[in-house]
Amino acid sequence: MRTLVAAIFLLFATPALAQTELAPRVERIVSEDSASFEAHVFDTGARQRPRGAIVLLHGGGWVAGDATWVYPRARQFAEAGLVAVAVDYRLGDPRRASADARAAIRWLRANAVGLNIDPNRIAAYGVSAGGQLSATAAQGEDESARPNAIVLLSPALDVGRDGWFARLVGGRETAQQLSPLEHVRAGLPPTLILQGDVDSETPLPGARRYCEAMRAAGGECVLKVYIGYGHLFTPAGINDRDTPQPDPTISAQAGDFALAFLRHRGFMD
């Protein structure tokens, strides 16, 4: 996971910063330990009826990245009618990052009236490491911090087997305890996983096991597999660990699929 950091930054940061057609406003949110972090809010303007909202959590192996990495997708969601919040969660410790993800969802619900959003239509969108954060929020005991649906792109769901994650959290036992795959239960929100079949960073079997466990518990999990693509939709044959190169056509298709998933479940009018 660590080897992805520099390459992902080059792939996502520059294009995102170049786009200025819809600029976010920056909010400061207080997390569970009283520390604060930034949330970048994309909103095309208030509508008469309360809208759905979505929290976006970038990748970067829990140690790199920022909210700008998911700006393009945040803009797409906002233009579709959602209030989209790109979270600049704290780096270096997945537990603090998870706390920030939960705090962002709580903040949306606490400010639902002012934002003109429906507190029962808040989704989470997580990329790679952000997928682990999204799934962990969905599995939490605090209802105010749980999303009503999650969309995951190349997600890290089986981190109990991930040596890098274990180093970050202090050992394999803790990594196992924090692995979303180990905490699937009844009552989790509808989940969409967008995944390449030759992903070498967050391999497909982890996503398959997660979806199978959700379905066995009576939940809804849609696994959309893109054949011939690796991490972040890097074409097969290209090193998707050190130098991921997302295919723009497949990435666009995945974005449209995510929108359709949320629209079908009532998140957009």
Verbal overview:
With 269 residues, the chain is of the alpha/beta class. It is built from 9 helices and 8 strands. The chain has an 8-stranded mixed sheet, sandwiched between helices. Helix 5 links the parallel strand 5 and strand 6. The longest helix has 17 residues.
Shape: globular
Quaternary status of these chains? Answer: single chain
Show unreliable segments: 2-20
Q: What letter string, H or E per element, gives the SSE order?
A: HEEEHEHHEHEHHEHEH
Q: Could you give the count of β-strands? A: 8
Radius of gyration: 17 Å
Q: Please give the count of helices.
A: 9
Strand arrangement within the widest β-sheet reads 1-2-4-3-5-6-7-8
What average pLDDT do the residues reach?
92
Main sheet?
A: 8 strands, mixed
Brief overview, please?
By secondary structure, the protein is of the alpha/beta class.
Characteristics:
8 strands, single chain, eight-stranded mixed β-sheet, 269 residues
Architecture blueprint of SSEs:
Layout: H1 5-18, E1 25-30, E2 36-42, E3 51-57, H2 71-79, E4 83-88, H3 94-110, H4 112-115, E5 117-127, H5 129-138, E6 149-153, H6 163-169, H7 172-177, E7 191-196, H8 204-216, E8 221-226, H9 248-264
Parallel strand pairs: 3-4, 3-5, 5-6, 6-7, 7-8
Antiparallel strand pairs: 1-2, 2-4
